[in-house]
Amino acid sequence: MKRWVKMTLIGLILLSVLVHLYPLNNYAIWGSDTGEYYALSEAAAEDGRPWPASDRGEYEGWGHAYPFFPSTYLMASGFSSVADVPLLDCLLLLIPALAALSTIAVFLISRRVIGLDTPALAAAAFVTLAMPRTYATSHPMMGALADPIYLFAIFFFLKSYDDRRNLLPAAILTAALIPTHHLSFYFLVISFLGIAAAMRVIYSDRYLSPPPERTPPKEFMAAIKDLKDSVNRETIVDMTRDARRKEGFFRREIEWWDAVFISCAVLANMLYWTLAAEPFFNNVVSATVGLSVVLLVLGPVISVLLFLLIVGRFRYRPKIAFFDRKALFGVQFLIFIGALAVLSYIVVVGVPGTSIDIGPVIIPLFMPFVAVITFMTPGTMAARRYRDGMAIFFWALMITGSLLLASATKSTVLIPYRHTQYLIVPLGIFCGLGLWVVYSNIWNDKRGLFTIFIVILIAMTSISTYPSQEVMSGFEEGTSEDDMKAVIWSRDHIDGTVATDHRLSSMLFGFGGINATWDYAYNTIHGENITEFQDELEEVQTPSGKRPIDFVLITGTMEKGVALLQWESAEPMSKEAIDKFDEPPFIQLYDDGSTRIYAVAEG
Hints:
With 603 residues, this protein is mainly alpha-helical. The protein has 28 helices and eight strands. Helix 2 crosses helix 4 (87-99), helix 8 (142-159) runs parallel beside helix 10 (182-201) and helix 13 (257-275) packs antiparallel against helix 15 (293-311). 46% of the residues are buried.
């Protein structure tokens, strides 16, 4: 690796760390569920239990799956103990910093596929600043620690097709992901399946010689580089076709080791769910699907084998794509218009698969992001020139298929927008490759100007990395110092169930040990007349069972948007809903100007 590449990659890693930690400049706590993560990490540090003890011996927080995927909490509590660093600092700083290492994985995957440094660096830079991934991994959730594990596992799985010894690190990383994050493991499996499918459909030929080196044929690359106009196009087509046939561009012996590897990974995961995470399996997986344990364990394994068996019967040889400046710009313009149409659809109809409404400000805010995404066009065209390029395409195709299925079924387990964190990586690889293709094949005489343009464009995507509460349909991930002061005051002065939104419920539970309502006190918060919420005051559903509401916590952030269910918009409170707390049965106990706590009078 050249020195300038190393220095650029180190700079991108540092940038990734800074971007992941940036929200802490504006908030005391970043992440709406950080309170729960803190409670779980504290329990792991104190008595080694995977969840805080309770009278019933059960976890009484909102995230029923959280206690059974403890890698994040063990990492934070272990580092806190060894380094003598406060536990909260480990959660807020260490976990996002580890998530920032995904930048290295994106670079390595891109370089592995393309074999060139510049497009790999461009892909890593874009993914580092892309909102769908960075926003999700900037707080200490399970998926933040899982993100680099997921990507490094894909990197070694790709390499294993040329050297089976890479299966060992791939297996270790896959095993590490199982107790880290269930959703990331799901995406890892379908990503593996996409790559394995590409190897069978495009790159497999059992009756030809063993696989050659990964780098594209020299004659092929020379022909592409020399392509100036359409005069010698037919000659170049013949040259590149003969070169690819001669050097075995598609020749790779595909056996069933990858299917066995994926099946064993799925089986190990299902056994972990049924044995070590039984409450999660029963309450989430089994209750959602409604099948027997045997079918739920063996069904995914059988599905993996059948899927690869079926796709293995097909063969496809992608044709060589040539770049015409006008046609390419035309396609990019159409994609740009199409992306704006999708954003407009989201503004008018809502986020697919949810009832979340997004304001029109999302369109200008994400225009730089959309502009970079348009370079997927030359990227996907060029991907077929590289020996593993179509594997990235199949990887993206599998996640896209899952996204469409989740949107059509409005799944609350595979929430559609959660797919974007994982989809942005293969798309980012195509964007990096597309930028390099345009740079090297079209802007030959103005490369310096184009380079400046691309650097500015990618930098401008950072504008949308952390959208405001208004853009996020009322959702707010951060908790201010004033809100945390109210949480600490509650810990010292009240005892009972507090009605508030999801974010403050997490803080009360994690930092104050107080039971809260999380997603369930809609009428108490939004109701304008006591007849609307009287029954809820007497008995409301909470993660620990039905209980009466003893207190209410309202903040200025909540007035702008009350975050309850994550697949519904955070609705602002009406003036009447706010003013009702000034009348019985509510008694004000705490008021710092923006945060207020009320007691509910008996009777």
